[in-house]
Amino acid sequence: MADITEIETGEVLLNHEEETEEHERKGTVWTATAHIFTAVFGSGVLALAWSVAQLGWIAGPLALIAFSCVTYYTSAMLADTYRAPDPETGLRNPTYMEAVRAYLSPRKVNICGVVQYMNLWGTLIGYTITAAISMKTINYLFYQDGYEPKGDASGTFVLQFGIAQLILSQLPSLENITWLSVMSAVMSFVYSFIGLGLSIAKWIANGHIEGHVVGITALSPSERTWNSLQALGNIAFAYTFAEVLIEIQDTLRPSPPENITMKKASLYGIGGTTIFYLTMGCAGYAAFESNAPGNILTGFGSYGPSWLVDIANICLILHLLGAYQIYAQPIFAAVERRVAAQWPEANIISNICSSFQADPNKLQSLKAHNPFNCYSRINISGHDGTIL
Description:
By secondary structure, this protein is mainly alpha-helical.
C-alpha cells in the first residue's frame, strides 16, 4: 500500500507556502454552516425514530444531546489544528492529513489516513444505498397509484445515482459546490419537515403518545442490548463530519481567523441539527412506538398521502446528491495529488504547474479541464458503483 504521506504531500508540485494559495478562499460562517448542515444533516436523521424507540423516552433524547456536545467539542479542537503551530497565525493545513502530519508522527499519519478514507468510502456507500431505497419507495408508491413497476430496479437506481454523481464530480473543489450545499441543506429541511408533519399527524390520529420510558420491552435481553448499541451507532453516524471539517475550513477567508469562524459555523450547524434530530426522533417514536421504521419516510406508505411522501423522498435524493460530493471531494483531491506525484514529468502536469506559477488565478479553470481531474472522479465514482 502506498504511503499515505505520499498521497497528501504537496511538495511535488508546490511547496507548502505556495500550496496555501492554491485557491481563493471566499467562504464565510454561513457558507461553512451550509456545508456542515449538508454533511451532518444527512440520511442519519431518518433512523432516529427507530433509535429513540430502542433507547426509550429518557435515554434516547439524552443520547442525542450527549453526542451533539461531544461532536461540537471535538470539532472545536479540530478547527484549531487548521493552522500550526499557532491556530490563528501558523501555516495552513488544507487537509485533514496535513493537520495530522503537523501534530502527530508519520506512523500516525498513515493510520489516520486509512481511517479517514475508509470512513469517507463507507459514507459514500451508505448515501448511495439510501438514495436507491428512496427511489425504490417512489417506484412502489407509483405502483400503489396504478403504475406497474418493472421488477426490482434497485440496480438501476444505483446506476442512475452514480451517473448523476459522475456529472457533479466534474466540479473542481469544495469552493465550487457552495450552491449545491445550500440546495442540499434546503432539501434536508423540506423532507425533515414533511417527515415531522406526517409523524405529528399520525400521533394525533392515534390519540395518545406511544412508547416506553425504557424502550422496547418485548425483546430478549440480548436483542435489547444489540438494538441499543445499534441505536447509539446510528446516532453517532448522524452527527459525523470530522472527516471533512478541515476541508470545509479551508474554504474560509482568512479574516476573521478561520478557527474562530469554523467554531461558530460548527455551533450553528450542530445546534440546529440537534434541534431537528430531537424533534424528528421523538415525534417519530410518539407516532410509531416499537414499530418505528429504520427509514421514517418508508413508514408512511399506508398512512400519508403518496404524493407528499414522494416529494419527501425526492428532496432526500437531491440532498444526498450534494452530501455525496461533500464527502467525495477530499478523495478526488487526494487521488489527483497522488497521480501528480506518481507522474511528475507528464506533459499535462508540467503545463498545469507552469501555467499556475505564471498566473495563480488560472488554477481553477485549469483544474476543471484537467484530464487527471476527470479520471479520478470517473474512477472513484465508477468503483463505488461497481462495488454496490
